[in-house]
Write a structure and sequence with these properties.
Keywords: DNA-binding
GO molecular function, one term: DNA binding
Pfam families: HTH_17
Number of strands: 2
Protein name: Excisionase family DNA-binding protein
Structural class: mainly alpha
Order of helices and strands: HHEEH
């Protein structure tokens, strides 16, 4: 699977701040992949799973 979304793009998709995305990556609830020393990429499928309502 490709990690092709930036933190900013993920924040836009979920309508949250980039700080929220970074917190979820840090606490392990949102999987991400570091590309190089600074770049972080996420998969769209992981965002979709993250956005599912509780009990779904």
């Amino acid at each position: 699977m490709r990690y092709d979304m930036t933190v900013q793009q993920a924040a836009d998709v979920l309508a949250v701040s980039t700080k929220t995305i970074r917190r979820r990556i840090a606490d392990g609830t949102l999987p991400a992949h570091r590309v190089g020393p600074r770049l972080i990429r996420l998969r769209r499928i992981d965002l979709d799973r993250f956005a599912l309502p509780i009990g779904a």
